[in-house]
Amino acid sequence: MEAIDVSPEMLTLVGTGVLGEHRWPPSPVAFEIDFGNPIRFRFHHSAKRAALETRCNDVRVVLIVDRAACDRLLGSELDLGDGDTFFLPTELRAIALAIRECGLPEAAATPYRLAKSIELLCEILSAKREDRLTASTGPASLSQLDIHRIAAARQIIDEQWTEKLTLDRIARRCGLNRSKLSRGFRQIYRCTVSEALVERRLAEARRQLIATDLPVSLIGYRSGYLNNASFTRAFGRRFGQSPTDFRACAVAA
Length: 253
Description:
Structural class: alpha+beta
Organism: Sphingomonas caseinilyticus
Protein name: AraC family transcriptional regulator
Keywords: Transcription, Transcription regulation
Helix content: 40-55%
Order of helices and strands: EEEEHEHEHHEHHHHHHH
Distance between the termini: 42 Å
InterPro entries: Homeodomain-like_sf, HTH_AraC, PchR_regulatory_protein
Number of domains: 3
Strand order of the largest sheet: 1-2-5-3-4-6-7
Number of helices: 11
Number of strands: 7
Strand content: 5-15%
Radius of gyration: 20 Å
Shape: globular
Domain HTH araC/xylS-type: 151-249
């Protein structure tokens, strides 16, 4: 695997094959990301070469990090269990894919992947701190296949939120009936399918208000709201401010 020596406290490995001979941080833990459908990561409480080489034929990104550094970034002791596996949240999937697929020349690729590795670690720990990690195992009432199909439904929402998605359409795409999808989605993600879709659209609207100068009405329309009043109400309920006030505060900051 290709190695990125991020710091004395962190090593990133990318690709397939055995780990190779590299300097490891002291007291290492590991976050092993595999790129199945959906993308998941497995936590290794005490990173060991033998455990990390069991899937050496798969394309992976492996973050090997000093435990003390994780505790420091998290602000408390990292209490994930050995072998705990989680679906990678939407915004983190993009970072992991950027590390895996970086096509820059070597002189630029190394610092780019180094920065993205730090970002990915910080975002994983932030998701842990904010209880946004979803375990890839679920209630006993759901089979492992159902759990993967429900995760696929979440990925459809996260990646295709601009489309006219309905519960029936999402259920058909992921191979579940609507009642099992509705029930299982709430069990795993603690919200309904429609609530997840609204959250995804409003999160993108929030990003566009900060990152672009597009008119508020256009951002609302692109987020699935047919008029500015309904967009303003939904945004205000979620973020406590109107879109216009939110943008003004972001610009002032």
